[in-house]
Design brief:
By secondary structure, the chain is α+β, with helices and mostly antiparallel strands. It contains two helices and three strands. The chain has a three-stranded antiparallel beta sheet with strand order 1-2-3, covered by helices on one side. A hairpin with a 2-residue loop joins strand 1 and strand 2.
Length: 87
């Protein structure tokens, strides 16, 4: 999914953040008022939830190959060593 637009609405129970994709995909995350006091905080919390969801086996439509892969967000920095790497 390639993100095209993010919409946010404050409802009676909290915030609803909609992530709209380029192929018609829509992912909605509800964030309780207790977890976000502003639109910016609600969007950041919704992004955190999305990252947590990727740990449940969505890579390429298949399951993660190991626990490290499941916990990874895929954002590897060249200057930081991988976990369990010894020189």
């Amino acid at each position: 999914m390639h993100l095209l637009e993010t919409k946010i609405v404050h409802e009676t129970t909290g915030w609803r953040v909609d992530f709209l994709g380029d192929d018609g995909q829509l992912v909605s995350i509800k964030v309780a008022d207790g977890h976000a006091a502003s639109e910016d905080e609600a969007i950041e919390r919704a992004k955190e939830v999305m990252v947590q969801l990727t740990a449940y086996g969505t890579r390429g439509g298949g399951r993660s190959i190991n626990p490290y892969d499941a916990a990874s967000n895929g954002n590897f920095d060249d200057d930081e060593p991988l976990l369990d790497t010894w020189h």
